[in-house]
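Batch manifest line 430
LIGAND: uridine-diphosphate-N-acetylglucosamine
JOB: complex structure
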Amino acid sequence: MKIMLIAGARPNFMKIASIVEAIQDVQRAGKHKLDMVLVHTGQHYDEKMSKTFFKDLSIPEPNINLEVGSSSHAVQTAEVMKRFEPVLLQERPDAVLVVGDVNSTIACSLVASKVAYPTDSNYSSLARPLIVHVEVGLRSDDWTMPEEINRVLTDRLSDLLFVTEPSGMKHLRAEGIPKTRIHYVGNTMVDTLLRHRQHALESTIFKRLGHDHATGADLLHAVGKRRSQGHVVDAAVLPYALVTLHRPSNVDDPETFKGILDALIQVSRHVPVIFPVHPRTVGRVKEHGLGDYCRTLEGSEPVTNDKGILHCIEPLGYLDFLCLMSHARVLLTDSGGIQEETTALGVPCVTLRKNTERPVTITHGTNRLAGTNPRSILREARASLTVKRKRSRTPPLWDGNAAQRIVSILIKRLQANKKLASRQPSSRVR
Ligand code: UD1
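JOB STATUS: finished
ARTIFACT:
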């Protein structure tokens, strides 16, 4: 059995890391003959957006890199498709596994759905690979989001659908996806977070941000947290807010972007605000002439007046960001993944969007929707800073074992297909 895993952009890497590990566990156990081919589309390509995640999460070097790079949605999607098709025909995997909702996800699913393996292929028992989608059924109902288009279409094309939260089951049934294709398994990104949480304490990010302490663990020790057998018992809360911002709807329009930055400056009068800035956002800061808000990006001193200060820094690697996220008073973000990670960590999150495709982070978790109006951002941020922390309930099966469930269901399905094909050698299974 040969499984091809696709990863393209930053939020994909933490989702595949635990799946790669689960496959490697099966390979080591030797019970099943399972080959893995890792394809990086190159949608994200630089050290800070890609390479550092492979290092931090011990993901093996990709077998194939399509090196598509950045461009418009159409060109990027088309380039992935053009470069992926020959790879698929060469490798002929039994299954192509895609995660999340980025352009690489839809591009590879679309290619896999239409490809036809040559009939003389004796490697795969299938006429085309099984399309496996991880993180299905999330819906924002906001069709201005490229991700909504990507996720709805990918779900529709998939043969095996792995759901992360209860709303996903409801949406897929309402859309008429056959029940036999759908499996509720939990969240592979949370698997990765739980696995690396202790390791992240060794991050030196606090020192690099100007604290005296060598690692996150030293800083926590210094603020007097209880420790037991080398493990932090209570998640220590340190007085800072952590921000991420990159959605086109938030940063492409100068008025909206400026309003959000104004709100963040107000927040920084209460607590320091640390803002690792996504490359898309850096581009918009320059384009809209908003450099005064983010002077630290240029290495200049921030403007100090009666207003607060945004500590703008470069994008961080996985372990540094996890360390900062774990101990922040509050996250302010427009990311989808961070809404889930803060729920898993029990850290308050203010989402700078009008909607979320991840409602479990509100019903069970720590998430509040603020939209992009500066006043409501400030109101929700203040509430998160002042109100006693709500304990988050763990969403069903966010227990660190989602990837094992996925791999075991996938193996069973591929074995069943092979059995079927050996009974009917002339007509291969679709
Ligand atoms: C993509 C995903 C989005 C995800 C985000 C996480 C789609 C439609 N969007 O958006 O869902 O939340 O990734 O980051 O797939 N750039 C670099 N270095 C890189 C990659 C990008 O500098 O390694 C810059 C380029 O200038 C590029 C810009 O960032 O134009 C945006 O990158 P792109 O992949 O087009 O989209 P994201 O905004 O990152």
